[in-house]
Amino acid sequence: MLGLQSYGSSSENDSDNEQSKDATKELTAHLQPVDKTHSLSTTLAVCAAPDVVPMGTAAVSRTLDPTLKEVAYNPRYEEMYAPVQGPEHPDLTMQQRAPRNTLAGYVEKAHINAFEFENQRRTFHTYGYALDPTVDNEADGQSFVGDLQSAYDDNGKTVFEAPKPKKMRKQEKNDNPEDVEGFLGPWGKYENEISVAKPNEQERAELDELLSKRHKRGRIPEDKPLEEKSTLHIKDAYDYQGRSYLHAPHDLGVNLRSNAPPPKCFLPKAHIHTWTGHNKGISSIRWFPKTAHLLLSGSMDCRVKLWEVYGDRRCVRTFSGHRQAIKDIAWNNKGSHFLSASYDRYIKLWDAETGDVVSRFTTRKMPFCVKFHPDNSKQHLFVAGTSDKKIICWDTRSGDIVQEYDRHLGSVSTITFVDDNRRFVTTSDDKSMRIWEWDIPVDMKYIADPTMHSMPAVTLAPNGKWMACQSLDNKIVIFSALNRFKMNRKKTFTGHMVSGYACQLDFSPDMSYVVSGDGDGKCYIWDWKTTKMYKKWQAHDSVCISALWHPHEASKLVTAGWDGQIKYWD
Questions:
Q1: What is the pLDDT of residues 558-568, one digit of tens each?
Q2: Tally of domains within the chain
Q3: How far, in Å, CA of 548 to CA of 556, rounded?
Q4: Three-state SS for 37?
Q5: Shortest CA distance to 428 belongs to which of 401, 447, 444, 400?
Q6: Contact between 474 and 455 (Cβ < 8 Å)
Q7: Do residues 260 and 551 lie in contact, with contact meaning Cβ atoms separated by under 8 Å?
Q8: 345-371 pLDDT tens trace
Q9: Which residue ranges contain the repeat WD (predicted)?
Q10: Diameter over CA atoms, the chain
């Protein structure tokens, strides 16, 4: 601005020009380069963090570490009893304010001579006595604890005062290394040492009595063979063409031989029939393979019954041959034979048409689940999960065990074939799931999680892609039945009470619904896609142990309960 002001002035006035130049230099001095002769960087060392006296220095007190043993100055009371960190808590009691180095309080180091303490400890350990620590130092040192007689005999001498050694038994010695045969070294026997301990007559009698009791307790009593029989309850066992009741009828309006499921399934609304005949609770029910025109039921009254599903819905045949309750039943692919597993430790193969027992299998352990191999080429093989943590494969032609899968840590609950029957999945009371390749006795995958519970009932979905598992934390959890066998955490069905019960569950044929019983006798139906509960009703007076959807009917399902009844719903 000064330069512009002087632009139009007369050049004759030199003094005015010099003044204006000096003023311009002063105003633009900060824009000029710094003269090195006057630079601070060449003359001073600048400290970026100088020592600054804080505000209120008089209020800042010296701090003391509570663990200090020695202080080099005389601290004030306020410094010694200041809070350890931060302001003092206003609500602490005197006991809570007190310093502590243990959970219970403050422990001071006692003034004990370390040598004397170790001396008395070793003396007590070696000779069984030591000086009484409760006696004052002024006492005569004649009060002892422990073996008083030894203390007075040895005059209270310690291990460092070397009391007389105890009399030791004489030991045979031969330390001559040249005597190869007779060399004893430190392993010589003592005098009068007995190297073999034999029981006398009284001890032998007691041992024999004890062993006989143990043998009786561990041995399973061999009962007389039970009469295995079956009773036919219908007169027309064969039709006019000579076909038995195992042949599916054609005149029902339903194609029982089709492989396609119903196009759309609906919720059942009414109770249409009750099958009665079992004296005790039902434990398992199974549809006749593929056609489902017959229903097989195993009960706790030791009997298996075959029922008609269509027509008059009569009881066709009763199979009796077990001493204890039936645990599981399984059809073969044709429906000509079935297996029954019982708590009497036997698995029996029955002819469904004649009612005869074809063969019997046992390992003297309880079988909890049985399943035929689903391949038509391997119908002579079946697997059973037992109470001794094994899965055992039998050959029905020879009656021999052909494979054992022994990896579980608890009794085996279920066996489910997946992946075109090349693999099978087992669950156990050890709260784990294992996946096996067929005929390879080492599990290829082990699934266990701290949040998992035991899963005593597993059902494969009709499309073969999912497994529904009844978990004992009152949930139905879904696992993938393909490569990874991963739990689908988005699909969990809840609302029922199954803790302690192996309630069998099922899918509707079109996979729209999931159905299950529960421990209160109710039957529940959920939507598969949304996992919402659609329906529940009181189906039985006791536990509803099984619920199966008919594979060819859109809205018919059967439930079985511990009240001994099997009910049909539509």
A1: 999 999 999 99
A2: 1
A3: 9
A4: helix
A5: 447
A6: no
A7: no
A8: 999 999 999 999 999 999 999 999 999
A9: 275-309, 319-360, 405-437, 505-536, 537-570
A10: 151
Other residues' Cβ atoms within 10 Å of the Cβ of residue 39: 10
SS3 of 371-421: the string is: EECCCHHHCCEEEEEECCCCEEEEECCCCCEEEEECCCCCCEEEEEEECCC
246-261: per-residue pLDDT in tens? 999 988 888 898 989 9
Asked if residue 214 belongs to a domain, the reply is no
Which two tokens mark 568? 């049909």
* Residue type present at position 80: M
Q: Which amino acid is at 373?
A: H
- Cite the DSSP H helix spans in 31-160: 77-80, 94-97, 114-127, 148-153
DSSP 131-195: E-TTS-TTS-S--EEE-HHHHHHTTT--GGG-PPPPP---B-----TT-TTT--GGGPPBTT---
Please, are residues 442 and 430 in contact by the beta-carbon 8 Å criterion? Answer: no
**Rounded percentage of the chain residues whose pLDDT exceeds 90:** 56
Opening angle at CA 302, ends 299 and 305, nearest 5: 55
Contact between 400 and 417 under an 8 Å Cβ cutoff? The reply is no
**Tokens standing for 108?**
């001071």
Q: What is the DSSP letter of 77?
A: H
The answer as to whether 342 is a domain residue is yes
Task: Tell me if residue 80 falls in helix, strand or coil.
Answer: helix
Contact 390, 434 (CB under 8 A): no
Structure-token match 């963090």, residue found: 49
N-terminal to C-terminal alpha carbon distance within the chain: 104
Give whole-number Cα distances, 99 to 64, 89, 220, 314, in Å: 13, 14, 68, 85
Taking the C-alpha atoms of residue 340 and residue 296, their distance in angstroms, rounded to an integer, is: 11
Predicted model pTM? 0.64
Residue type, position 448, single letter: A
Distance (Å, whole) CA 174 – CA 183:
5
Tokens of 394: 């039998």
Q: Rounded to an integer, what distance in angstroms lies between the CA atom of residue 543 and that of residue 564?
A: 10
Is 317 a member of any domain?
yes
Question: Residue 80: CA atoms inside 13 Å, Cβ hemisphere, count?
Answer: 8
Rg (CA), the chain: 46
CATH number at residue 317: 2.130.10.10
Tell me the per-residue pLDDT of 31-80, one tens digit each, with 9 for 90 and over.
666 666 555 555 556 777 777 666 654 555 678 887 788 888 998 888 88
CB 265 within 8 A of CB 513: yes
For 403, the domain range is 259-569
Look-up: residue for tokens 């040492």? 193
Residue 441 has pLDDT above 80, yes or no: yes
Amino acid at position 297, single letter: S
Distances (CA, A) of 152 to 127, 141, 172, 177, 244: 12, 12, 33, 43, 100
Counting every residue written for the chain, the total comes to: 570
Nearest CA to 489 out of 452, 534, 445, 514 is that of 452
Say which residues have a Cβ less than 8 Å from residue 96's Cβ, sequence separation at least 6.
89
Q: Which residues pair with 299 in a beta bridge?
A: 282
Task: Tell me, yes or no, whether 539 lies in a domain.
Answer: yes
Helix (H/G/I), strand (E/B), else coil: 457: strand
The phi-psi region of residue 72 (left if phi > 0; otherwise alpha if psi is between -120 and 50; otherwise beta) is alpha
